[in-house]
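One thing: could you explain this record?
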Amino acid sequence: MNSLEHKLHRLAARALPGLPTLLAVLSSGALFLLFLAVQNKPALAASALVFEGAFSSSFAWENTLQRAAPLMLTALCVALPARAGLIIIGGEGALVLGGLAAAVLPLWLPAFPGPLMLVLMGLAAMLVGGLWIGLAGWMRQTRGLNETIGSLLLSYIGIALFHQLVEGPLRDPASLNKPSTVPLEDTYLIGTVSDAFAVHWGLVAGVIACLLAYVLLRHSVSGFALGIVGGNVRTARMLGLSVNRLVLLTCLLGGAAAGLAGMFEVAAVQGSANAALIAGYGTSGILVAFAARHNPLAIILCATLLGGVEASGSLLQRRLDLPDATTLILEGILFTNLLAWEALSPRLTAWRLRLLAKAATPVGGVPEHG
């Protein structure tokens, strides 16, 4: 076997894990076009409009990246616990409660300088979000409650608690038709990255969080230990790993990421905590995490693509008279296909191991000895 074949085998082995996502995207696109054709809508024109609304201009890019910023952070709320074998889908609750904590913190503290207050708001949002998702992990490890059901129920409880507080004791009396907390002072608002690039700093925070998560999961002792826990809990316990501590760590970090997304939505977009904070970013983050196969670096790309799809909804509505929720149908089709094509994973793993074994064969095919 020559060196070129070695390289091709390695390249194929690296590409195989992403094959289910690619197949899901292609099949979802075909089904979405069929869905539009059944309604006598120009399917190909709709596809062009999705691209136009997402990536055709600087304004489209700004709109796309504005939506991608919280998706990166809420996707980490799913991807980090997934490394330990947990399926957490309660990021929406952590986001809204984290945003609420960030919105009311300045009301209870002295008038600190703007940068310091923003740091404190971020820490408060991360603490609340981390504890909320950490509660799901704790109940799973100590009470045997399924973490998927537990995190989903906690999300509903978190949203209900948010409504209760915003429409009750924390409501600004001046907010008549749209209940909200007291608006943040201008010094506590987060601006855009630059005048020429009208996207708030949450995008930078999301990218940095994904990079840090990648280093943690792929290039640290704790990340290696988490991989063992996610692969086989019994083996992890036999090796003396603190399974409970590692599971809670991923839940706390994931919840902190979702809470931070809520803080940026409050300080950079809404200006206060109100019902607009419940925009479905926690739910869409689940789709982003599964599409990225829980890889923090791939989350950046998938969040950008999904942000573009969501940003094109209004353009489809104006040009083709389609409901704004049409893009939600596309997201639903994509999520269903991701789950369906996931059945290929065991077979792809076997193929990947064979390719890696061939890539490890010495040039010339002579087996190594000794």
Observations:
- The two ends are 20 Å apart (CA to CA).
- Residues 68-299 form one domain.
